[in-house]
Design a protein that fits this description.
By secondary structure, this protein is mainly α. The protein has a domain of 73 residues. 62% of the residues lie in helices and 0% in strands. The chain has three helices and no strands. The longest helix is centred in the N-terminal third of the chain and has 47 residues. The protein is flat and about 105 Å long.
Length: 105
């Protein structure tokens, strides 16, 4: 009976140790998630301000206010396109061989 109690206590001790290790890992993960939550709350508070929303809409989404005129700027070309080269003549096709004539029908 003493051996049974020793094995049972040993098994429970191992379980207790594993649970404590898992608890420490979960507490570390919780601390990371809380820091991330605080960062996101700070960003949310910053974005609530109208000027930030407007600047993001103009810069990232290319939006304009009603009544404004959108201006699209195209890059300047270094030189105008030269005149296209005249088409090269297609060489005359040689007379088909007797084998090509046989299968072309």
């Amino acid at each position: 009976m003493a051996v049974y109690f020793a094995v049972a206590i040993g098994g429970r001790t191992v379980q207790l140790y594993q649970m404590q290790v898992e608890r420490v890992q979960l507490e570390q993960e919780l601390a990371i998630l809380r820091a991330e939550e605080q960062a996101l709350l700070g960003e949310r508070d910053r974005l609530v301000q109208y000027q930030d929303i407007e600047s993001i809409a103009r810069r990232d989404l290319n939006l304009i206010k009603p009544g404004e005129t959108a201006v699209i700027v195209y890059p300047a070309f270094a030189s105008p396109d030269p005149a296209p080269a005249p088409p090269t003549p297609i060489a005359a096709r040689p007379e088909p061989s007797w084998l090509e004539r046989l299968f072309s029908r």
